[in-house]
Design goal:
Length: about 300
């Protein structure tokens, strides 16, 4: 569920001397001006894969708490397995035991996502079935040198990411990940998230999941049209238009917004009429099932 976090110490008067104390952190990395030998910011230290970065005016603690949990369990730092509620709580408490005043920090960035097992390679679904989000085209579409498909949709407060988690880590199963990365706290503060300890609250996690599901519902995911489809040529032409970003972009201007809403309804009716939402229905049900499983373990 929870992956990347970035926590912010506004007051560094206590945390900086704590981190720079050798009794607390055996390794501390700094920037040194070669000729003068002057030590400059930033200072950095680590708790496993979590980075502590001390600047001249602030301190950040950041990285994936999912990867940190796997490191604590003696595994490599990865995030392709399940991250259950009990594990989230354990990892947050561990981090709190290694730092001071963690409850006084505030979260400034956050990632929330779920890994779903599939009966087929995730790259096929990402490439062939997932096309638009909020009727807008993706901002990034990468293959990572043959290590799987990745699509990212950029919005004001968040990125919505879909990628092939199994191929990323060369796993022997098919896994797709849906994930929101909140770029700023305005995206998750309304959901009740202000501090990392809020992520131990199941109601808060439910609110984050509801937001993920809302973003998922905004995706355009349609099945491949079967060869025996009864769709008319006119409907096929219309579907082709609906799957084009340019079609929706032209309707985004102020004078066409009412028409855009009507066309979106016609698009949905066309998909329902020809039963082209089986993939989306399966993925949505899988997300709900996976979240319930993780929350109750």
């Amino acid at each position: 569920m929870i992956d990347y976090v970035r926590q912010y110490y506004q007051d560094k008067s206590k945390i900086e001397p704590f981190v720079t104390d050798k009794n607390n952190f055996e390794e501390l990395f700094t920037v040194m001006e070669y000729h003068s030998g002057e030590i400059n910011y930033p200072f950095t230290a680590n708790i496993g894969s979590m980075e502590i970065r001390i600047n001249d005016k602030s301190v950040f603690v950041m990285n994936s708490i999912h990867k940190l949990y796997n490191e604590l369990k003696g595994n490599k730092g990865h995030n392709h397995n399940d991250f259950q509620y009990s594990a989230i709580c354990q990892t947050i408490d561990y981090l709190g035991s290694k730092l001071i005043d963690l409850r006084k920090t505030r979260l400034t960035q956050l990632e929330f996502g779920l890994n779903i097992k599939l009966p087929m390679p995730a790259e096929f679904i990402i490439r062939e079935n997932i096309s638009l989000h909020k009727l807008e085209i993706h901002n990034h579409n990468e293959q990572f040198n043959g290590r799987g498909e990745y699509k990212q949709f950029n919005h004001y407060n968040y990125y919505f990411k879909i990628y092939d988690k199994a191929k990323q880590y060369n796993l022997g199963e098919h896994i797709i990940r849906f994930e929101i990365k909140y770029k700023r706290s305005k995206g998750f503060n309304p959901l009740g998230v202000f501090n990392i300890y809020d992520l131990k609250n199941k109601e808060v996690l439910k609110a984050l999941f509801d937001d993920l599901l809302k973003r998922f519902d905004e995706l355009t995911i349609i099945d491949n049209i079967p060869s025996n489809s009864k769709m008319s040529n006119r409907e096929k032409q219309k579907l082709e238009s609906y799957l084009s970003f340019n079609f929706w972009d032209k309707l985004s201007v102020r004078e066409n917004r009412n028409r855009k809403s009507e066309e979106a309804k016609r698009f949905q009716k066309l998909l329902i009429k020809h039963d082209l939402l089986k993939t989306k229905t399966f993925l949505r049900a899988s997300l709900i099932e996976k979240f319930d499983e993780l929350l109750n373990n």
